[in-house]
Each structure stands twice: as C-alpha cells, then as structure tokens.
Specification:
CATH superfamily of the largest domain: Ribonuclease H-like superfamily/Ribonuclease H
Distance between the termini: 93 Å
Number of strands: 15
Helix content: 25-40%
Largest sheet: 6 strands, mixed
Shape: elongated
Radius of gyration: 33 Å
Strand content: 15-25%
Length: 504
C-alpha cells in the first residue's frame, strides 16, 4: 500500500516540475494508475498511520517537558516549575515512569540553555519562507471575557503577518488558519517553518527530521508546500513569528477587543492586518505593502477548491433524533433515527451527512452537555403528537424568541379548534419559516390578527400580499367632453323588467 509520502512525491513532480505521467513513472517506478490517483488526491484512500511503541517510558513525554520548561521560563522567577512540579504535571497526563528520569532530563535541558549561543543575521528570498505559531490572548466575545487562541503566519521576506482567532488549537483550526492566511496573501509560501506542534508532528526524530501526522502530510501535499521544524527548545530558529505573536498580543489585543462572536473578531483582525501592512520595517524605506507587491507573485498558486478544514467522525442518531459530539447533542431530521451518519467538525460549525449528502448543519458549540436543536427537525413529529407541543424542548427554545403575536395566534387557534387541530394549524404557520424570511412571516401573523383572520389561510394571504404586493391602478378620469354625461343618465328599470320576462 502506497503512503502519503509517495503521493506527495508524485504531486510535486507533476505540479511543480511539470513532468508527464510517463516521466514520473520512470523516475519513481509507480504505475500510471497510481500516479493519476495521486494527481487527483492528496492522500491514499483509507490510509491510516500505524503507531509505533516508544522506546522508553519517558520518550513520549520529552517534548512536553521541553514545552513546560519554555513556559516556565516566561513566568516570574519564583513561579517557575521545579523538576518535581514537572513530574506531577506529567503524571496527570499518564506518565508512569520514575521521578528521577524526569529530574535528569529537566536538568540536562536547562544546562543546555545556559550555554551562550551566537546567532547569524538571516535574509530570505521572496515568496520562499513563512513561519507559523500559536499564541493565547484574552478577548470579550458575546459580552464574556475568555481565552482565545491566535494563529499567526509571518512571511520572512516582506514581514507580512496574518492573525486569526479560534477557540482552540485543534487540527481543524490549524488547517483553517493556513487556508485563511493563504487567501489573505493570495498564494502559498513555498516553505513553512513550525515549532513541534502536535497537529503536525507525530514524533520528533534526529535533527530537523520529523514523523508527521498523516492528516497534515495530506494537507501539505494538497497545497504543495514544504515543511521545516525547529530544534526542540530552540525558539530563536523562528524568532520572527514568535515576535509577531507578541506583537499581535500587544497591538491587536490591547485594549481587550469586544466582538459579538468569533466571525466579528476575525473581521477586526483582518482589518488590523491590512492596516499593519502600511508600517515601515526598521532600516527599510519601503512599507511592508510595497515589498509585498513584489513578493506575492513568487508564491505558489492557490487551489480553486479549499482543502476541507475538518475532522470526520461516525455518529449514530439516538431515539430523540440527535447525534452526540463532544458531549453536546445536535438534532437531525427525525427520519434518520437509528441510522449511522457522518459528522464533519469544522472550527465553527458541524455538518451531518448521509451518503455524502449534507442533511443538516449547526453552529459548533464550545460548551458541554448542551442541546443544539433545530425545531424544523421536529415539526412533522409534533403534527402527529400535538399534545407534546407545550413540553417539546425545541419549541421551548424557539418560543423564547417569539413575538406576542405568535402567542396571540396560538391562543386564538386553540380556542376555535380545541381538539388539537388548532395546534396542528399553528405548526403549519411555523413551517412557513422554512421558505420565507422570519421578519416577513412575523408581519403576516401580525396583520392576520389585526384583520380578524387568526387562522392559517389568513396568515398565508397576508404573507402573499407582503411578498408580492398588488400594484394599484390609477383611478379612471372622465374629464374628456365625450364622457361628461357618463354616470349622470337616468336609469330605466323597465329594461331590467323585460329581462325577467324572458323564458329559456
């Protein structure tokens, strides 16, 4: 079975070197069928990374230790982690080895950092190199202060920076951050340098070599850029982006920004990035935007279709017509009860699919044990069981946002049709929201009540009038002399009497 690395080699040879399928076959010794598959897809179907057992108990935790040391060095001296504290933190993550091994590795890393190092000034070719990192800030979203993760991409040549906010650093956010950055820059950098992020790196090997996450390898293969990784605990190797994280924290998030949601916050950040391009880099005469004009043409072209920035899961619909994801319950249409469906989790939304067709979509919930329900999924079932109307959770949630006119219509229908048909008729009114603007349906309900037509036909008539109002014709004028006597002639009723005498 061919790997994602094989696919990546084929795609680079085809898209970047311009080799024919025949030439690729001769060089890489692959079949034409395989080459065609790799050209169309970034990874083999059904490929799964096989995990190897770590050589020692401590080995899988070395990267975590280095991260904790780095985090500790940024804290006040008296609040930095001791070797014992790092040991306790590793235990909480499943470490079962001895404390002495942890102390020895911590001591070794800290001694290494004490050695003075000299660094070279670097210069980068246009369009060649970018750097990526994450940072953490505080923002006010929806009236509540919360921690926010910021994705930062930095172009080494022009110093263009892109910043986007997410609720977490999960893989789908990692991919989405790249995609947004590529669109902001109008292309793809040829090489991107990373710290040893878990969303990209499965295992740290010798030197700059890494065993990458399968999903990231497929993502990289799709956009055809190269990846490079810093030596653990050597943050200076990508100091540009780390300074950009600090720059964004100080300039884009001070004072603490306020936004109704993440979409609004990212709109603010996008504009801040555009404004930032007007600055001049120290020692340069041109602005960042002016340098960027020449660099942009050196980037790899963007794909016409974005890579799906999501994770996929298999879910089963419970008897309440819900699927469970991250402890939260999302509704689906009732006809899917008991079936297995696919779920795609994007940073800010979830899609539920049946046979590759999207059956519903919801905003992604970042809390726990919440019900995210679409009332339209349950209206058909409520028509069959109108007695459950008052207690149905989807209706209770929706009802909190109803106007008083809806309650008035429901009361009138129940009074006129107390056998349950009134509730069914009200549900039919609610169904009008599926194909019509909510504010227009609301106005139609209001007009129907004002006209004394508190029923489905009355609401539909008012809705049709609001959507397609009848144009009133101008009044007929009889000013012409020939029509001056029209309407003033005496009526001769004898003519009507003669009509009554006519027999069939």
């Amino acid at each position: 079975m061919k790997t994602v690395d094989d696919y990546e080699s084929i795609r680079k040879a085809y898209y970047l070197e311009g080799l024919s399928i025949r030439a690729i076959g001769k060089r890489l010794h692959h079949s034409r069928r395989l080459i065609r598959k790799a050209i169309d897809h970034a990874q083999p179907e059904g490929y799964q990374l096989k995990q190897e057992r770590p050589a020692t108990v401590l080995a899988p935790y070395k990267l975590k230790i280095e991260e904790l040391i780095k985090e500790s060095d940024q804290a006040p001296r008296k609040q930095r982690y001791t070797g014992h504290k790092i040991y306790q933190l590793l235990q909480a993550e499943g470490y079962s080895g001895g404390e002495g091994s942890v102390h020895n590795y911590v001591s070794q890393q800290r001694k290494t950092k004490k050695h003075r190092q000299a660094y070279l000034p670097l210069e980068f070719e246009a369009g060649q190199d970018a750097q990526v990192d994450w940072g953490e800030v505080v923002a006010e979203i929806g009236g509540e202060r919360q921690k926010v993760q910021i994705f930062v991409m930095h172009m080494n040549h022009s110093k263009v920076r892109f910043v986007a906010a997410f609720p977490f650093q999960k893989q789908e956010a990692f991919f989405e951050g790249h995609i947004q950055a590529f669109h902001f820059m109008g292309g793809v950098p040829r090489r991107i340098t990373y710290d040893n992020l878990k969303t990209a790196v499965y295992r740290v090997l010798e030197g700059h070599n890494r065993q990458e996450q399968n999903a990231f390898t497929a993502f990289r293969s799709y956009y055809l850029f190269e990846s490079r990784y810093c030596t653990p605990a050597q943050g200076h190797e990508k100091g540009g982006v780390e300074s950009d994280v600090g720059y964004a924290q100080r300039n884009f998030f001070a004072p603490i920004p306020k936004a109704k949601d993440f979409a609004a916050l990212n709109t603010l950040l996008h504009q801040a990035c555009l404004n930032d391009m007007q600055r001049r880099v120290r020692g340069e005469t041109d602005t960042v935007a002016e340098v960027w004009q020449s660099e942009q043409s050196m980037l790899l072209p963007l794909s016409q279709v974005d890579y799906p920035a999501c994770t996929s899961h298999v879910v089963k619909v419970n008897p309440y017509s819900q699927i469970v994801f991250e402890t939260n319950r999302y509704s689906v249409p009732t006809e899917y009860v008991g079936k297995q469906l696919a779920l795609r989790a994007y940073p800010f939304r979830v899609e539920v699919l049946s046979l590759a067709q999207v059956v519903t979509e919801h905003p992604r919930c970042f809390q726990r044990e919440q019900d995210i329900l679409d009332p339209f999924h349950y209206l058909g079932l409520l028509e069959q069981r109108p007695g459950a109307f008052e207690h149905a959770i989807p209706i209770r949630q929706w009802r909190q946002n109803w106007s008083a006119d809806y309650e008035g219509l429901l009361s009138a229908l129940r009074q006129n049709k107390p056998d349950g048909s009134g509730v069914r008729e009200f549900i039919a009114v609610l169904k009008l929201h599926r194909t019509n603007p909510p504010e227009t349906v609301n106005r139609a309900v209001q007009q129907a009540l004002e006209l004394g037509a508190a029923h489905l036909d009355g609401v539909q008539l008012c809705l049709r009038q609001l959507l397609s109002p009848q144009e009133l014709l101008p009044a007929l004028t009889l000013a012409h002399p020939k029509f001056s006597s029209v309407g003033n002639q005496p009526v001769h009723l004898e003519q009507y009497n003669r009509l009554l005498e006519v027999r069939p």
